[in-house]
Design brief:
The structure is a single chain. The chain has one helix and eleven strands. It has a four-stranded antiparallel beta sheet with strand order 2-3-4-9, with no helix packed on it. Strands 5-6-7-8 form a four-stranded antiparallel beta sheet, with no helix packed on it. Strands 1-11-10 form a three-stranded antiparallel beta sheet, with no helix packed on it. It is 17% helix and 36% strand. The longest helix has 22 residues. It has a single domain, classed as 3-layer Sandwich (Rieske Iron-sulfur Protein). The protein has 132 residues and is α+β, with helices and mostly antiparallel strands. It binds FE2/S2 (inorganic) cluster. FE2/S2 (inorganic) cluster binds next to loops.
């Protein structure tokens, strides 16, 4: 085959197609998996104030329940209960009140509130949450 301008362009187009087709096949698919979890708790096991359950904080206040993700909004460390009953981050000292509000930095965002389902007949609370 003579390599004139027309054949050169055909060859270049074919090479280009093969290169990009091969490149497309060789790119690995990135899957971001979230970890969906659910906890189910007997209502009688939830005390007044803050309760820590795995990755979830449940706050019982005057028979109202609220749930928060147990992750500091600064860099994601798991929160603990402070001596005064509020929530504290062991990593850099951020503190949150029982309404989930950041009251001492470096965290500035409030805690992530989670939906809580309560089934009074079966006497349990259920919280679904997702970790990335
Ligand atoms: S991760 Fe909680 S204060 Fe930094």
């Amino acid at each position: 085959m003579q390599l004139n301008r027309k054949n050169f362009l055909k060859l270049a187009a074919w090479s280009f197609s093969v290169f990009f087709f091969g490149l497309t096949l060789s790119i690995p698919t990135i899957k971001i998996r979230s970890r969906q979890k659910k906890i189910r708790l007997l209502l009688e096991n939830i005390n007044s104030g803050a309760n820590l359950f795995d990755e979830v904080i449940i706050v019982k206040d005057l028979n109202m329940l609220r749930a928060y993700l147990r992750r500091c909004t600064h860099l994601g460390c798991p929160l603990n209960i402070n001596s005064d009953g509020t929530l504290i981050c062991p990593c850099h000292g951020s503190q949150f009140n029982l309404a989930g509000m950041a009251v001492t930095g470096p965290a500035t965002k409030n805690l992530t509130e989670l939906a809580i389902k309560i089934d009074p007949e079966k006497k349990f609370a259920e919280v679904e949450y997702e970790l990335l």
